[in-house]
Amino acid sequence: MIIGTGIDLVDVARFERSVARTPRLLERLFTPAERMLKTRSLAARYAAKEALIKALGGSDGVYWTEIEIASEESGRPHFVLTGSTATVVTERGINALHLTMSHDAGLAIAYVIAERADAE
Fold it and tell me: CATH no. for residue 37?
């Protein structure tokens, strides 16, 4: 059963200006592994984290650096959650998070579906 969805769109150039103006933003928003990526990929990951917060219905107990977007060998993105963020997801009964991201024409987008398997 779907219990939440979230979508977010980021203007890559605007995101890049924000990071240039406030370099510590990278430390507040991204894990060390994510910080090594190109700006357009960071913008898509920022959108994914925002979309996750929307799918969860709010940010209580959720911390940006406890959300990492990693890629499977196939390239498919997925969330790696730690700390209280992982606890919040578990407490809300979510046992699957589906994520898709894209970037093109100066925009980055992410869509998240939070799902719970109902007991039969």
Answer: 3.90.470.20
In a domain, 120, yes or no: no
pTM: 0.94
Residue numbers of the domain that contains 38: 2-115
Other CB atoms within 10 Å distance of the CB of residue 58: 9
Spatial CA neighbour of 5 closest among 56, 70, 68: 56
Q: Is 60 annotated as a binding residue?
A: no
Query: Is position 8 annotated in a ligand binding site?
Result: yes
Query: What confidence tens digit (pLDDT) does each residue in 57-113 have?
Result: 999 999 999 999 999 999 999 999 999 999 999 999 999 999 999 999 999 999 999
